[in-house]
């Protein structure tokens, strides 16, 4: 919790809509978090489908916002300190279809919903100048148009229905009318961040009229104000500005302060997201690296893997992670290697919709397998940086780590050892805090606001010689991917040489 500051200090609200929870953070202008609220979110997974209920997003937003406001009052925050603006982040690629009144006409299709993978034609999307992945919004929208009820197709064609990203939908509910989206959430939906315009060819291919897509603005721009209804639901004052947000990966990058050229941030939550800052976009013929536009200048290249901490809950349900971590430390390296996918398909550092989890070697027991899972996520992270450096990106700058998994001190240290670099754990790692910083920046320079609000964190240097223990296991991991044809010989060679 935060500490009391003089009366009159402004507060800023950040909202993060994740896979398992929605979180609200209130920060003052000094970067002190004075209030937090959260509520659980549930998902429906059936085969390749992954959906959430947009009404649940709205309901939990109301609960978490009021909880954050009460929390701020309990820490001694003066009653005249008002929330001056709100910004929302959500999982990249999560969308729904809604009508002009803001009412959802479909469930929320989650970022890893893979229903479009069957029959996915990558060449077709490349020909449309949109080298998409099957879990990106437009391939899934094409699936809905082909397989969904006729009223959805008719509604889209007439412009009566439109695509909304998760954050857009909540902003519309808060404001009571349609709002613009930001160029971060729009990227995977066919927005050309370089030309700052929607791509024409894929929209014509889908038969989408202009009205079916929102206008796109710079993150931090004021897109609406909280209505009386939104105020009653959340406790935020009517008239409070709502500012365009960014995706959760970008929000975590802001929270880390990884905004200078050459810096990188890894978000280890349910999945693993790696993003950096470069002066020019990183061109990836394989299409797994995509480039967000920096709100100030330059680019935020990176990608999202399907591995992450979410697999621990599936493979080791109910585990006491502190106990497991202590046991895992006895297996460095583990008795075998594995690829820790909870479902089907990988997106980064290679694109394989058909990828599934595998194991090789012999594990002594479940503790050994748990250790192998932690190590494998770090191996994927190491391979991601090898892929980025092979494409010409400079990866030797400062490395930050954020996300819920950073609560594990052992895993943080293990990642530093395997990566062979000092990792910086920011003072506040939450994407919701990153959105509070963006809300405070508004139309100004985000880097300046971040410099004022974000505090230096804790450095985690690699243990001397510890990384050497994992070299042969990492080589076996790379060899296993090469043998399956998931990565090519050039990346395998570069990965082992750079190790």
Automatic annotation (TrEMBL):
Positions of the Carbohydrate kinase FGGY C-terminal domain: 266-441
Enzyme nomenclature, EC number: 2.7.1.-
InterPro entries: ATPase_NBD, Carb_kinase_FGGY, FGGY_C, FGGY_Carb_Kinase, FGGY_N
Record flagged with keyword Transferase: yes
Keyword Kinase listed: yes
Protein origin, superkingdom: Bacteria
Gene Ontology terms for molecular function: kinase activity
Keywords for the protein's UniProt record, in alphabetical order: Kinase, Transferase
Carbohydrate kinase FGGY N-terminal domain boundaries: 12-254
Annotated family: Belongs to the FGGY kinase family.
PANTHER family in the record: SUGAR KINASE (PTHR43095)
Protein name: FGGY-family carbohydrate kinase
Species of origin: Hamadaea flava
